[in-house]
Amino acid sequence: MRLRGVTRSRxxxxxxxxxxxxxGGIGGVGLxxxxxxxxxxxxxxxxxxxxxxxSQQSSEPRDLTEAEEQAGDFVARVLTTTETVxxxxxxxxxxxxxxxxxxxxxxxxxxxxxxxxxxSSGPFYCPADQRAYLDAAFxxxxxxxxxxxxxxxxxxxxxxxxxxxVQNELGILGQxxxxxxxxxxxxxxxxxxxxxxxxxxxxxxxAYHVSDLLETGDVEEALNAAERIGDDYLQARAGRQxxxxxxxxxxxxxxxxxxxxGRASGAVADCDTFSAAQL
Length: 279
Known about the structure:
Elements: E1 12-14, H1 28-36, H2 66-94, E2 102-105, E3 109-112, E4 115-118, E5 124-126, E6 131-134, H3 137-145, H4 151-169, H5 172-180, H6 185-209, H7 218-228, H8 231-237, H9 252-265
Parallel strand pairs: 1-2, 2-6
Antiparallel strand pairs: 3-4, 5-6
Helix pairs in contact: 2-4, 4-6, 4-7, 5-6, 6-9, 7-9
């Protein structure tokens, strides 16, 4: 992805290197339980992670490594592209203005408006404070553990979390939250899948509008990432039999298809997963 001429977004809150409190034993699974109460998490990779001791974060500030500096620069530039796209798409397609979210970069653990956050849960969006949260080490996990490397694969992850903010701006997350409150777990999971697939489609809308920044192989990187973070792929990779009733993000095929739907037209109207008879 060609980002050299893209400026850095001012909406990045970088908490890395500043120290903080210990996470006190909130692991991936525990965190997901907390965030599931009324909020929507990002990519669930906890089934692939080794059992670890409670994460700790030093209270002493430290300098960022060169790799961390580069990751922060990349995230800030990608975030700018989302701001540019949605600032144009909202009035053009939706007849309203867009308020960009902040993105919080952290290392290992942090606090959000949705509670304690751990890098082991993957990136997520918190509607309570309208911020996306990302431990950039997740990109290394995607590349090294999932085989989903490449700069556009990482950009797709950022765009997906921003897409949840788009949903929040449109009132979709609030409506879904109300519906899920009276549903069975199975029904709630099925509705959550539609939320996530719509975010994948909206990521595709973003990809359509940044086509001038794409390089050969970028789209393939995003599709590969979508495949590797499908519920069926992750459950199988974790040694479990894929169980559709427990899916919360959609299968690999579904995630790839809805990303392509958005990228094909660049139209938000083509991302109505809630009315789709077949996902």
